Backbone:
Protein backbone atom coordinates (compact mmCIF):
# COMPACT_ATOMS: atom_id res chain seq x y z
CA UNK A 1 0.00 0.00 0.00
CA UNK A 2 1.38 3.35 -0.92
CA UNK A 3 -1.07 5.34 1.21
CA UNK A 4 0.26 6.68 4.48
CA UNK A 5 -0.34 4.48 7.47
CA UNK A 6 -2.31 1.31 7.47
CA UNK A 7 -5.65 1.05 5.69
CA UNK A 8 -8.43 -0.74 7.47
CA UNK A 9 -11.59 -2.20 6.03
CA UNK A 10 -13.99 -0.21 8.14
CA UNK A 11 -16.44 -0.03 5.26
CA UNK A 12 -17.35 -3.68 5.23
CA UNK A 13 -17.06 -3.83 9.00
CA UNK A 14 -19.67 -1.10 9.35
CA UNK A 15 -21.87 -2.83 6.79
CA UNK A 16 -21.63 -6.21 8.52
CA UNK A 17 -22.09 -4.84 12.04
CA UNK A 18 -25.19 -2.83 11.10
CA UNK A 19 -26.63 -5.74 9.13
CA UNK A 20 -26.05 -8.14 12.04
CA UNK A 21 -27.58 -5.72 14.53
CA UNK A 22 -30.60 -5.20 12.27
CA UNK A 23 -31.21 -8.89 11.60
CA UNK A 24 -30.79 -9.89 15.24
CA UNK A 25 -33.24 -7.15 16.23
CA UNK A 26 -35.95 -9.40 14.78
CA UNK A 27 -35.41 -11.40 17.98
CA UNK A 28 -34.98 -8.60 20.52
CA UNK A 29 -36.48 -5.50 18.92
CA UNK A 30 -39.92 -5.34 20.45
CA UNK A 31 -39.11 -6.12 24.12
CA UNK A 32 -36.10 -3.78 24.07
CA UNK A 33 -38.06 -1.00 22.40
CA UNK A 34 -40.92 -1.35 24.88
CA UNK A 35 -38.56 -1.18 27.85
CA UNK A 36 -36.80 1.82 26.34
CA UNK A 37 -39.93 3.78 25.50
CA UNK A 38 -41.37 2.98 28.93
CA UNK A 39 -38.21 4.25 30.64
CA UNK A 40 -38.07 7.42 28.56
CA UNK A 41 -41.80 8.20 28.67
CA UNK A 42 -41.49 11.02 31.26
CA UNK A 43 -38.68 12.54 29.20
CA UNK A 44 -40.74 12.33 25.99
CA UNK A 45 -43.73 13.91 27.73
CA UNK A 46 -41.56 16.73 29.01
CA UNK A 47 -39.55 17.45 25.87
CA UNK A 48 -41.68 16.63 22.84
CA UNK A 49 -44.75 18.66 21.91
CA UNK A 50 -47.70 16.27 21.70
CA UNK A 51 -48.46 15.22 18.15
CA UNK A 52 -44.89 15.61 16.89
CA UNK A 53 -44.22 11.89 16.71
CA UNK A 54 -46.90 9.55 15.35
CA UNK A 55 -49.01 8.23 18.23
CA UNK A 56 -48.39 4.60 17.30
CA UNK A 57 -51.60 3.95 15.39
CA UNK A 58 -51.57 2.65 11.83
CA UNK A 59 -54.80 2.97 9.94
CA UNK A 60 -55.64 -0.30 8.23
CA UNK A 61 -58.47 -0.20 5.73
CA UNK A 62 -59.66 -2.54 3.01
CA UNK A 63 -61.86 -0.32 0.83
CA UNK A 64 -61.04 2.61 -1.43
CA UNK A 65 -62.13 5.24 1.07
CA UNK A 66 -63.24 5.45 4.68
CA UNK A 67 -66.92 5.61 5.59
CA UNK A 68 -68.11 9.06 6.61
CA UNK A 69 -70.36 9.46 9.66
CA UNK A 70 -73.54 11.49 9.25
CA UNK A 71 -75.30 11.84 12.65
CA UNK A 72 -78.59 12.65 10.91
CA UNK A 73 -78.92 9.44 8.93
CA UNK A 74 -76.70 7.02 10.86
CA UNK A 75 -78.41 4.02 12.49
CA UNK A 76 -77.08 1.01 14.33
CA UNK A 77 -79.11 -2.07 13.38
CA UNK A 78 -79.35 -4.94 15.82
CA UNK A 79 -81.10 -7.95 14.31
CA UNK A 80 -80.95 -11.69 13.74
CA UNK A 81 -81.88 -14.04 16.57
CA UNK A 82 -83.53 -11.41 18.74
CA UNK A 83 -87.08 -10.85 19.91
CA UNK A 84 -87.05 -7.13 19.24
CA UNK A 85 -84.80 -5.88 16.40
CA UNK A 86 -83.41 -2.41 17.08
CA UNK A 87 -82.49 0.57 14.98
CA UNK A 88 -80.61 3.01 17.20
CA UNK A 89 -79.77 6.61 16.40
CA UNK A 90 -76.46 8.01 17.60
CA UNK A 91 -78.19 9.90 20.43
CA UNK A 92 -80.07 6.81 21.55
CA UNK A 93 -76.83 4.88 21.63
CA UNK A 94 -75.15 7.58 23.71
CA UNK A 95 -77.99 7.41 26.24
CA UNK A 96 -77.28 3.73 27.03
CA UNK A 97 -75.23 3.05 30.22
CA UNK A 98 -71.74 4.45 29.68
CA UNK A 99 -68.63 2.39 30.41
CA UNK A 100 -65.04 3.58 30.48
CA UNK A 101 -61.72 1.77 30.44
CA UNK A 102 -58.03 2.15 29.74
CA UNK A 103 -56.58 -0.71 27.71
CA UNK A 104 -53.80 -1.60 25.29
CA UNK A 105 -54.47 -2.19 21.62
CA UNK A 106 -52.44 -4.88 19.86
CA UNK A 107 -52.16 -5.31 16.13
CA UNK A 108 -51.29 -8.69 14.68
CA UNK A 109 -48.54 -7.11 12.58
CA UNK A 110 -46.57 -6.31 15.74
CA UNK A 111 -47.38 -2.77 16.83
CA UNK A 112 -49.27 -1.88 20.00
CA UNK A 113 -50.71 1.30 21.44
CA UNK A 114 -50.64 1.42 25.21
CA UNK A 115 -53.16 2.99 27.57
CA UNK A 116 -55.89 3.97 25.16
CA UNK A 117 -58.84 5.56 26.99
CA UNK A 118 -62.13 4.24 25.63
CA UNK A 119 -65.74 5.07 26.45
CA UNK A 120 -68.72 3.19 25.09
CA UNK A 121 -71.40 0.62 25.84
CA UNK A 122 -70.92 -2.91 27.18
CA UNK A 123 -72.46 -5.45 24.86
CA UNK A 124 -74.78 -6.77 27.57
CA UNK A 125 -76.32 -3.29 27.93
CA UNK A 126 -76.38 -2.75 24.20
CA UNK A 127 -78.19 -6.00 23.46
CA UNK A 128 -80.64 -6.00 26.38
CA UNK A 129 -83.45 -4.08 24.61
CA UNK A 130 -83.27 -6.47 21.65
CA UNK A 131 -83.64 -9.52 23.91
CA UNK A 132 -81.44 -12.11 22.14
CA UNK A 133 -82.94 -15.60 21.82
CA UNK A 134 -81.42 -18.49 23.74
CA UNK A 135 -79.77 -19.92 20.63
CA UNK A 136 -78.17 -16.58 19.76
CA UNK A 137 -74.57 -17.25 20.83
CA UNK A 138 -72.61 -15.25 18.27
CA UNK A 139 -72.42 -11.56 17.32
CA UNK A 140 -71.65 -10.75 13.73
CA UNK A 141 -70.37 -7.20 13.16
CA UNK A 142 -70.94 -5.60 9.79
CA UNK A 143 -68.80 -2.57 8.98
CA UNK A 144 -69.87 0.34 6.81
CA UNK A 145 -66.50 -0.29 5.16
CA UNK A 146 -67.52 -2.99 2.70
CA UNK A 147 -66.87 -5.91 2.73
CA UNK A 148 -65.43 -5.91 6.25
CA UNK A 149 -67.15 -8.22 8.74
CA UNK A 150 -66.09 -10.16 11.80
CA UNK A 151 -67.68 -12.15 14.61
CA UNK A 152 -67.31 -12.66 18.33
CA UNK A 153 -69.01 -15.27 20.43
CA UNK A 154 -71.35 -13.80 23.01
CA UNK A 155 -68.99 -15.04 25.74
CA UNK A 156 -66.08 -13.18 24.15
CA UNK A 157 -68.17 -10.03 23.73
CA UNK A 158 -69.11 -10.20 27.42
CA UNK A 159 -65.53 -10.13 28.64
CA UNK A 160 -65.21 -7.42 31.30
CA UNK A 161 -63.35 -5.02 29.01
CA UNK A 162 -65.02 -5.58 25.65
CA UNK A 163 -67.30 -2.78 24.44
CA UNK A 164 -68.75 -0.93 21.53
CA UNK A 165 -66.74 2.30 21.83
CA UNK A 166 -67.80 5.79 20.80
CA UNK A 167 -65.03 7.79 22.45
CA UNK A 168 -61.26 7.44 22.31
CA UNK A 169 -58.86 9.42 24.47
CA UNK A 170 -61.57 11.82 25.58
CA UNK A 171 -62.98 12.72 22.17
CA UNK A 172 -65.64 11.24 19.92
CA UNK A 173 -64.14 8.44 17.86
CA UNK A 174 -62.29 9.96 14.88
CA UNK A 175 -63.10 8.94 11.33
CA UNK A 176 -59.92 6.90 10.87
CA UNK A 177 -60.59 5.00 14.10
CA UNK A 178 -64.06 3.93 13.00
CA UNK A 179 -66.46 6.82 13.66
CA UNK A 180 -68.96 6.72 15.17
CA UNK A 181 -68.58 3.28 16.81
CA UNK A 182 -66.12 0.41 16.80
CA UNK A 183 -65.64 -2.86 18.64
CA UNK A 184 -62.98 -2.86 21.37
CA UNK A 185 -61.78 -6.22 22.65
CA UNK A 186 -58.24 -5.74 24.00
CA UNK A 187 -57.64 -9.48 24.50
CA UNK A 188 -57.79 -9.95 20.73
CA UNK A 189 -55.80 -8.54 17.85
CA UNK A 190 -56.99 -5.44 16.07
CA UNK A 191 -58.78 -7.15 13.22
CA UNK A 192 -61.47 -8.37 15.65
CA UNK A 193 -61.99 -4.75 16.74
CA UNK A 194 -64.29 -3.93 13.83
CA UNK A 195 -64.45 -0.23 12.89
CA UNK A 196 -67.40 1.74 11.48
CA UNK A 197 -69.91 -0.82 12.84
CA UNK A 198 -73.38 -0.28 11.35
CA UNK A 199 -75.06 -3.60 12.05
CA UNK A 200 -74.84 -6.31 14.68
CA UNK A 201 -76.53 -9.57 13.78
CA UNK A 202 -77.11 -12.15 16.49
CA UNK A 203 -76.47 -15.61 15.06
CA UNK A 204 -75.97 -19.19 16.18
CA UNK A 205 -72.70 -19.94 14.37
CA UNK A 206 -69.34 -18.24 13.94
CA UNK A 207 -68.57 -17.03 10.45
CA UNK A 208 -65.18 -16.22 9.01
CA UNK A 209 -64.41 -12.51 9.10
CA UNK A 210 -62.61 -10.51 6.43
CA UNK A 211 -59.09 -11.42 7.57
CA UNK A 212 -60.06 -14.92 8.63
CA UNK A 213 -61.04 -15.63 5.04
CA UNK A 214 -57.45 -14.61 4.31
CA UNK A 215 -55.82 -17.04 6.68
CA UNK A 216 -55.95 -15.38 10.09
CA UNK A 217 -57.24 -17.17 13.20
CA UNK A 218 -60.89 -16.81 14.18
CA UNK A 219 -60.02 -16.69 17.88
CA UNK A 220 -57.42 -13.93 17.75
CA UNK A 221 -56.16 -14.04 21.37
CA UNK A 222 -53.22 -11.69 21.81
CA UNK A 223 -50.03 -13.73 22.17
CA UNK A 224 -51.80 -17.06 21.64
CA UNK A 225 -52.85 -17.08 18.00
CA UNK A 226 -51.68 -16.39 14.45
CA UNK A 227 -48.31 -18.04 14.96
CA UNK A 228 -47.30 -16.12 18.08
CA UNK B 1 -15.74 17.48 -21.17
CA UNK B 2 -13.00 15.03 -20.29
CA UNK B 3 -10.65 17.08 -22.43
CA UNK B 4 -11.42 20.34 -20.61
CA UNK B 5 -8.52 20.65 -18.13
CA UNK B 6 -10.60 22.65 -15.70
CA UNK B 7 -12.73 19.59 -14.98
CA UNK B 8 -12.08 16.11 -13.64
CA UNK B 9 -14.25 13.09 -14.19
CA UNK B 10 -15.87 11.95 -10.94
CA UNK B 11 -18.67 9.45 -11.55
CA UNK B 12 -19.09 6.96 -14.39
CA UNK B 13 -22.39 6.54 -16.15
CA UNK B 14 -22.92 3.28 -14.27
CA UNK B 15 -22.35 4.94 -10.92
CA UNK B 16 -24.69 7.80 -11.73
CA UNK B 17 -27.41 5.45 -12.98
CA UNK B 18 -27.05 3.35 -9.85
CA UNK B 19 -27.33 6.41 -7.63
CA UNK B 20 -30.42 7.81 -9.33
CA UNK B 21 -32.19 4.46 -9.60
CA UNK B 22 -31.61 3.94 -5.90
CA UNK B 23 -32.66 7.48 -5.02
CA UNK B 24 -35.86 7.41 -7.13
CA UNK B 25 -36.98 4.08 -5.71
CA UNK B 26 -36.16 5.28 -2.22
CA UNK B 27 -38.39 8.33 -2.61
CA UNK B 28 -41.34 6.31 -3.93
CA UNK B 29 -40.91 3.77 -1.14
CA UNK B 30 -40.64 6.53 1.44
CA UNK B 31 -43.74 8.33 0.18
CA UNK B 32 -45.89 5.21 -0.12
CA UNK B 33 -44.53 3.91 3.20
CA UNK B 34 -45.45 7.13 4.97
CA UNK B 35 -48.98 6.92 3.59
CA UNK B 36 -49.24 3.47 5.14
CA UNK B 37 -47.69 4.68 8.39
CA UNK B 38 -49.12 8.10 9.24
CA UNK B 39 -52.83 8.13 10.18
CA UNK B 40 -53.40 11.60 8.72
CA UNK B 41 -51.96 10.56 5.34
CA UNK B 42 -53.81 7.23 5.46
CA UNK B 43 -57.08 9.07 5.88
CA UNK B 44 -56.28 11.62 3.19
CA UNK B 45 -55.24 9.10 0.56
CA UNK B 46 -57.35 6.03 1.40
CA UNK B 47 -56.99 3.08 -0.98
CA UNK B 48 -54.67 1.25 1.37
CA UNK B 49 -54.56 -2.02 -0.63
CA UNK B 50 -53.50 -0.04 -3.70
CA UNK B 51 -50.82 1.96 -1.85
CA UNK B 52 -49.52 -1.30 -0.42
CA UNK B 53 -49.23 -2.73 -3.92
CA UNK B 54 -47.41 0.39 -5.12
CA UNK B 55 -44.99 0.07 -2.21
CA UNK B 56 -44.31 -3.59 -2.78
CA UNK B 57 -44.09 -3.42 -6.58
CA UNK B 58 -41.69 -0.47 -6.32
CA UNK B 59 -39.53 -2.58 -4.03
CA UNK B 60 -39.45 -5.35 -6.63
CA UNK B 61 -38.73 -2.92 -9.47
CA UNK B 62 -35.96 -1.35 -7.39
CA UNK B 63 -34.20 -4.68 -6.81
CA UNK B 64 -34.50 -5.67 -10.47
CA UNK B 65 -33.25 -2.27 -11.65
CA UNK B 66 -30.23 -2.37 -9.33
CA UNK B 67 -29.40 -5.88 -10.51
CA UNK B 68 -29.70 -4.78 -14.16
CA UNK B 69 -27.48 -1.73 -13.70
CA UNK B 70 -24.82 -3.87 -12.08
CA UNK B 71 -25.14 -6.64 -14.68
CA UNK B 72 -25.06 -4.35 -17.71
CA UNK B 73 -22.83 -1.59 -16.38
CA UNK B 74 -19.13 -1.13 -15.76
CA UNK B 75 -18.65 -3.79 -13.11
CA UNK B 76 -14.90 -3.36 -12.93
CA UNK B 77 -15.36 0.32 -12.12
CA UNK B 78 -17.96 -0.52 -9.47
CA UNK B 79 -15.60 -2.99 -7.84
CA UNK B 80 -12.90 -0.33 -7.73
CA UNK B 81 -15.32 2.15 -6.17
CA UNK B 82 -16.37 -0.47 -3.64
CA UNK B 83 -12.75 -1.02 -2.64
CA UNK B 84 -12.28 2.73 -2.23
CA UNK B 85 -15.37 2.96 -0.02
CA UNK B 86 -14.18 0.03 2.08
CA UNK B 87 -10.66 1.26 2.85
CA UNK B 88 -10.10 3.76 5.66
CA UNK B 89 -6.53 5.04 5.93
CA UNK B 90 -4.88 7.06 8.67
CA UNK B 91 -6.20 10.34 7.21
CA UNK B 92 -9.74 8.98 7.19
CA UNK B 93 -9.51 7.93 10.80
CA UNK B 94 -8.24 11.36 11.81
CA UNK B 95 -10.93 13.05 9.68
CA UNK B 96 -13.61 11.14 11.60
CA UNK B 97 -12.15 12.64 14.76
CA UNK B 98 -12.76 16.04 13.21
CA UNK B 99 -9.11 16.67 12.34
CA UNK B 100 -8.78 18.28 8.92
CA UNK B 101 -6.85 15.91 6.66
CA UNK B 102 -6.67 15.58 2.88
CA UNK B 103 -9.22 13.08 1.61
CA UNK B 104 -9.43 10.59 -1.24
CA UNK B 105 -12.24 10.32 -3.78
CA UNK B 106 -14.71 9.88 -0.92
CA UNK B 107 -14.23 11.46 2.46
CA UNK B 108 -14.55 9.27 5.53
CA UNK B 109 -18.05 10.52 6.24
CA UNK B 110 -19.20 9.54 2.76
CA UNK B 111 -17.65 6.11 3.23
CA UNK B 112 -19.60 5.59 6.44
CA UNK B 113 -22.74 6.88 4.73
CA UNK B 114 -22.28 4.46 1.84
CA UNK B 115 -21.80 1.49 4.18
CA UNK B 116 -24.93 2.45 6.13
CA UNK B 117 -26.94 2.98 2.95
CA UNK B 118 -25.98 -0.49 1.72
CA UNK B 119 -26.75 -2.16 5.05
CA UNK B 120 -30.10 -0.36 5.28
CA UNK B 121 -31.03 -1.41 1.74
CA UNK B 122 -30.45 -5.03 2.71
CA UNK B 123 -32.35 -4.69 5.99
CA UNK B 124 -35.27 -2.87 4.34
CA UNK B 125 -35.46 -5.72 1.85
CA UNK B 126 -35.36 -8.47 4.46
CA UNK B 127 -37.88 -6.82 6.80
CA UNK B 128 -40.10 -5.76 3.90
CA UNK B 129 -40.26 -9.27 2.48
CA UNK B 130 -40.92 -10.68 5.94
CA UNK B 131 -43.85 -8.25 6.34
CA UNK B 132 -45.19 -9.40 3.00
CA UNK B 133 -44.52 -13.11 3.38
CA UNK B 134 -45.54 -13.21 7.05
CA UNK B 135 -49.03 -12.21 5.98
CA UNK B 136 -49.14 -15.33 3.82
CA UNK B 137 -47.34 -17.78 6.12
CA UNK B 138 -47.74 -16.97 9.78
CA UNK B 139 -44.61 -18.84 10.83
CA UNK B 140 -42.67 -15.93 9.33
CA UNK B 141 -44.45 -13.25 11.25
CA UNK B 142 -42.34 -11.73 14.02
CA UNK B 143 -43.52 -9.01 16.37
CA UNK B 144 -40.31 -7.03 15.76
CA UNK B 145 -40.31 -6.98 11.95
CA UNK B 146 -42.38 -3.83 11.66
CA UNK B 147 -40.25 -2.11 14.30
CA UNK B 148 -37.14 -2.82 12.27
CA UNK B 149 -38.78 -1.54 9.07
CA UNK B 150 -40.02 1.62 10.82
CA UNK B 151 -36.72 2.18 12.64
CA UNK B 152 -34.82 1.99 9.36
CA UNK B 153 -37.21 4.55 7.92
CA UNK B 154 -36.47 6.99 10.74
CA UNK B 155 -32.70 6.57 10.60
CA UNK B 156 -32.64 6.78 6.79
CA UNK B 157 -34.67 9.95 6.96
CA UNK B 158 -32.06 11.58 9.21
CA UNK B 159 -29.24 10.50 6.89
CA UNK B 160 -31.19 11.72 3.87
CA UNK B 161 -31.75 15.17 5.35
CA UNK B 162 -28.01 15.51 5.94
CA UNK B 163 -27.26 14.16 2.47
CA UNK B 164 -29.64 16.57 0.75
CA UNK B 165 -28.31 19.50 2.78
CA UNK B 166 -24.76 18.78 1.67
CA UNK B 167 -25.75 18.04 -1.94
CA UNK B 168 -28.18 20.89 -2.53
CA UNK B 169 -27.73 23.67 0.03
CA UNK B 170 -24.36 23.82 1.79
CA UNK B 171 -22.29 26.15 -0.46
CA UNK B 172 -18.93 24.42 0.03
CA UNK B 173 -20.15 20.98 -1.06
CA UNK B 174 -23.12 21.52 -3.35
CA UNK B 175 -20.92 21.66 -6.44
CA UNK B 176 -20.82 17.85 -6.02
CA UNK B 177 -24.26 17.72 -7.62
CA UNK B 178 -22.62 18.48 -10.96
CA UNK B 179 -20.55 15.31 -10.54
CA UNK B 180 -23.62 13.20 -9.89
CA UNK B 181 -25.50 14.66 -12.88
CA UNK B 182 -22.92 15.34 -15.62
CA UNK B 183 -20.15 13.11 -14.30
CA UNK B 184 -17.43 15.71 -13.80
CA UNK B 185 -16.55 18.44 -11.30
CA UNK B 186 -14.26 21.49 -11.28
CA UNK B 187 -10.64 20.57 -10.67
CA UNK B 188 -10.12 23.34 -8.13
CA UNK B 189 -13.17 22.15 -6.16
CA UNK B 190 -11.93 18.58 -6.23
CA UNK B 191 -8.48 19.66 -5.10
CA UNK B 192 -9.99 21.39 -2.15
CA UNK B 193 -12.26 18.53 -1.05
CA UNK B 194 -10.66 15.36 -2.38
CA UNK B 195 -7.00 16.25 -2.83
CA UNK B 196 -5.50 12.79 -2.62
CA UNK B 197 -7.86 11.61 -5.36
CA UNK B 198 -6.97 14.41 -7.79
CA UNK B 199 -3.26 14.02 -7.03
CA UNK B 200 -3.44 10.30 -7.75
CA UNK B 201 -5.48 10.58 -10.93
CA UNK B 202 -3.43 13.54 -12.20
C1 LIG C 1 -37.21 -4.04 -0.68
C2 LIG C 1 -37.66 -3.02 -0.03
C3 LIG C 1 -38.99 -2.94 0.70
C4 LIG C 1 -40.01 -3.88 0.81
C5 LIG C 1 -40.08 -5.28 0.22
C6 LIG C 1 -41.03 -3.28 1.62
C7 LIG C 1 -42.23 -3.90 1.98
C8 LIG C 1 -43.15 -3.40 2.85
C9 LIG C 1 -44.34 -4.07 3.28
C10 LIG C 1 -44.80 -5.45 2.81
C11 LIG C 1 -44.98 -3.27 4.16
C12 LIG C 1 -46.24 -3.61 4.95
C13 LIG C 1 -47.44 -2.97 4.41
C14 LIG C 1 -48.60 -3.35 5.32
O1 LIG C 1 -48.89 -4.52 5.47
O2 LIG C 1 -49.21 -2.46 5.87
C15 LIG C 1 -44.20 -2.07 4.29
C16 LIG C 1 -44.53 -1.01 5.12
C17 LIG C 1 -43.78 0.17 5.20
N1 LIG C 1 -42.63 0.47 4.51
FE1 LIG C 1 -41.65 -0.76 3.27
N2 LIG C 1 -40.66 -2.01 1.98
C18 LIG C 1 -39.40 -1.77 1.44
C19 LIG C 1 -38.65 -0.61 1.54
C20 LIG C 1 -39.04 0.52 2.24
C21 LIG C 1 -38.30 1.77 2.28
C22 LIG C 1 -36.99 2.04 1.54
C23 LIG C 1 -39.01 2.62 3.09
C24 LIG C 1 -38.75 4.04 3.53
C25 LIG C 1 -37.72 4.74 3.28
C26 LIG C 1 -40.18 1.91 3.56
C27 LIG C 1 -41.12 2.42 4.42
C28 LIG C 1 -42.22 1.74 4.89
C29 LIG C 1 -43.13 2.25 5.89
C30 LIG C 1 -43.03 3.62 6.59
C31 LIG C 1 -44.11 1.27 6.07
C32 LIG C 1 -45.31 1.34 7.03
C33 LIG C 1 -44.99 0.50 8.22
C34 LIG C 1 -46.00 0.61 9.31
O3 LIG C 1 -47.19 0.49 9.04
O4 LIG C 1 -45.56 0.78 10.45
N3 LIG C 1 -40.18 0.62 3.02
N4 LIG C 1 -43.08 -2.17 3.48
C1 LIG D 1 -32.63 14.36 -4.80
C2 LIG D 1 -31.99 13.50 -4.10
C3 LIG D 1 -30.49 13.30 -4.07
C4 LIG D 1 -29.49 14.13 -4.47
C5 LIG D 1 -29.60 15.54 -5.06
C6 LIG D 1 -28.24 13.44 -4.24
C7 LIG D 1 -26.98 13.92 -4.54
C8 LIG D 1 -25.80 13.23 -4.43
C9 LIG D 1 -24.52 13.72 -4.86
C10 LIG D 1 -24.26 15.08 -5.48
C11 LIG D 1 -23.61 12.75 -4.60
C12 LIG D 1 -22.13 12.80 -4.93
C13 LIG D 1 -21.30 13.27 -3.78
C14 LIG D 1 -19.88 13.32 -4.20
O1 LIG D 1 -19.58 14.00 -5.17
O2 LIG D 1 -19.08 12.66 -3.55
C15 LIG D 1 -24.30 11.66 -4.00
C16 LIG D 1 -23.70 10.49 -3.53
C17 LIG D 1 -24.37 9.51 -2.83
N1 LIG D 1 -25.73 9.44 -2.60
FE1 LIG D 1 -27.10 10.82 -3.13
N2 LIG D 1 -28.51 12.21 -3.68
C18 LIG D 1 -29.87 12.09 -3.57
C19 LIG D 1 -30.56 11.02 -3.03
C20 LIG D 1 -29.96 9.93 -2.43
C21 LIG D 1 -30.65 8.90 -1.73
C22 LIG D 1 -32.18 8.84 -1.55
C23 LIG D 1 -29.72 8.01 -1.26
C24 LIG D 1 -29.89 6.75 -0.46
C25 LIG D 1 -30.94 6.40 0.19
C26 LIG D 1 -28.41 8.51 -1.68
C27 LIG D 1 -27.21 7.88 -1.38
C28 LIG D 1 -25.98 8.32 -1.84
C29 LIG D 1 -24.73 7.64 -1.56
C30 LIG D 1 -24.57 6.38 -0.74
C31 LIG D 1 -23.72 8.38 -2.21
C32 LIG D 1 -22.23 8.05 -2.25
C33 LIG D 1 -21.43 9.04 -1.45
C34 LIG D 1 -21.80 9.01 -0.02
O3 LIG D 1 -21.78 7.95 0.58
O4 LIG D 1 -22.18 10.07 0.50
N3 LIG D 1 -28.60 9.66 -2.38
N4 LIG D 1 -25.66 11.97 -3.89
Residues:
Amino acid sequence: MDSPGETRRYGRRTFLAVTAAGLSSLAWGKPVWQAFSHATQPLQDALLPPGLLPDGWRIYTVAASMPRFDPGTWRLQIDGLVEQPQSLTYDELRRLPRAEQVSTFHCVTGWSVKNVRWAGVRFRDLLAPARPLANGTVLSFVSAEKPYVDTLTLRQAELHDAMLAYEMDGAPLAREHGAPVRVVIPEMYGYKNVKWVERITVADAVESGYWEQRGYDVDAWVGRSNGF
Amino acid sequence: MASDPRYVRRFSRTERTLHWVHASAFFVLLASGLILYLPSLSELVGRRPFVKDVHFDTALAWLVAIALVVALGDRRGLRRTLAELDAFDEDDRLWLRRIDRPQGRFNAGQKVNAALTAAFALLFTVSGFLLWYGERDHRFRFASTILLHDGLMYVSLVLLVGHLYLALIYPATRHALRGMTTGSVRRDWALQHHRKWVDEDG
Residues 104 and 114 of chain A are 4 Å apart (CA to CA). Strands of chain A lie at 76-80, 86-88, 99-106, 112-121, 138-143, 149-153, 163-168, 171-172, 182-184, 197-203.
